[in-house]
Amino acid sequence: MPTRPRPRRYPARYSAFSLLRHGLAGDHLVPAWRDRELKNSYDVVIIGGGVHGLATAYYLAANHGITDVAVLDKGYVGSGGSGRNTAILRSNYLTPEGVRFYDRSVRLYERLAADLNYNVMFSQRGHLTLAHNDSSLRTMRWRAEVNKLEGVDSEVVGPAEIKKLVPYLDVSAAVRYPILGALYHPPGGIIRHDAVVWGYARGASGYGVHIHQNTEVTGIDVAGGPNGRRVRGVRTDRGDIAASTVINCTAGWSTLVAEMAGVRLPIQTFPLQAAVTEPVRPFLDAVVVSGSLHVYVSQTDRGELVFGASVDPFAGYSMRGSLEFVEGLAGHVLELMPSLAKVRLLRQWAGLCDMTPDFSPIMGRTPVDGFLVDVGWGTYGFKAGPVSGEAMADCVATGRTPDIIAPFGVERFAEGRLLGEKGAAAVGH
Ligand code: PYC
Question: Which residue, 402, 401, 385, is CA-closest to 102?
């Protein structure tokens, strides 16, 4: 059992006087993580500097003492899906395997600020998935029962309870999409997504992990081993790196990276757009999702309304916003909350979602020895960051696939053991 390395200490708490002293002295700009020389060999190379890659690096170091680890990102940390999502956390999934997995993530998120000594601003304000017709209501009941059996707090509530939780929703019958009920999930909420990324980066770096931004992987070396398929390292635009373990933690480019190692994945990539308004007075506490209207809304602590929808109808790699999206989104939001008609949108953006046929991720070992994947995150990747990092780190350190991710192996597609999560994956896709 390796002894746990001690993380480098960073200034943690300030009194009012020390804050003033640091502010005046200008010595408060301690970088959250260190820049290091790129070595030509590491024990573990992680491709992708988003929440999944950084959490994996952090738990490898913190839980297993494995610190000879490099996280490579072709851009800057959090520049992919981790900085482009709508920051919603929840565990009210449909399959028992999914519920258990995301519940572990919510629990890790609940203690993340303390674990990382970094304020990630997790606000468990409750999550409501509205049902506008009988079939949605049936799915909500189904989800509530599976959630309860797995110990997750979810229940179906009626219009009167919804009105108490979100007074600005029109729950009368006199609307085009009447609200018949909702799946209410009190532990759900929102988090400051970039703080999570920075916190993990800082934590991992404190243990000695190397984080290399602007370092693009251009190839993966595979040779030798019992079946001629053993990973040897990666090629990058800054030189070759030897490694006996390489983990693909990318989103958007996961199939292209896996193909570099000769692994084909059943994934198609779609853009997902989102938008944010000017700040308005706090009026919306819970996160509100409507599958039928393809929309979800939350209000940040600064007062902005964050809106998202389902993925674009065509596969692609574009990360530009479109007018069609904003038009559709505005129409759907106004069906739910007509009083927002005068609120102005400030920004819109897109991220890339790697969709699998069953709307569940692909995690664990692959037919290439030493090459692991943590991919296929569709529209649900950010909420799974902590549990994925913890499980992938266990998988590398112990050589065994942890039970919590065993259902998500890539072999399920060949074996016909799909894990259908479509009924609980974001909004209707
Ligand atoms: O699965 O909760 C979700 C979600 C929100 C935004 C995209 N996906």
Answer: 385
